[in-house]
Amino acid sequence: MGISSTQLSYFVIGLGIFMAAISFYLGRRKTETPILVSVIGFFTAIIPPIAFIYLLILLFKRDLPKTQSNG
Questions:
Q1: Quick one: how far is CA 19 from the chain centroid?
Q2: How confident is the model over 30-43, as pLDDT tens digits?
Q3: 71 falls in which pLDDT band (50, 70, 90)?
Q4: What is the mean pLDDT of the chain?
Q5: Is residue 30 a contact partner of residue 63, using CB atoms and an 8 Å limit?
Q6: Which of 38, 29, 35 is nearest to 65 (CA)?
Q7: pLDDT exceeds 80 at position 12
Q8: pTM of this prediction?
Q9: How far is the CA of 50 from the CAs of 1, 13, 19, 66, in angstroms?
Q10: What is the mean pLDDT of residues 4-28?
Q11: Cβ(61)–Cβ(30) under 8 Å?
Q12: Where exactly are the structural domains of the chain?
């Protein structure tokens, strides 16, 4: 008894959506291109250890400086 290819593809797609959402959230705070960070996060889900390392890199990256608005 193993896992079917359908179950594996559901897992990878689910992990991809999770990675894209978390990457977008972290990308908004830490980069100037959150959409690109999110897309890269989605595709790293194909290889879960790479996805985990990518999340750790984003997590420990410094936040962007906040700009103050005159208003």
A1: 4
A2: 999 999 999 999 99
A3: low
A4: 90
A5: yes
A6: 29
A7: yes
A8: 0.82
A9: 27, 15, 11, 30
A10: 94
A11: yes
A12: 5-60
Ramachandran angles phi, psi of 46, nearest 5°: -65, -35
Please give the structure tokens belonging to residue 7. 């179950």
Label each residue of the chain as H, E or C. Answer: CCCCHHHHHHHHHHHHHHHHHHHHHHHHHHCCCHHHHHHHHHHHCCCHHHHHHHHHHHHHCCCCCCCCCCC
- Provide the residue type at 38 as one letter: S
- Sequence-distant (6+) residues with CB within 8 A of 21 are 38
Phi, psi of 10 (to 5 degrees): -65, -40
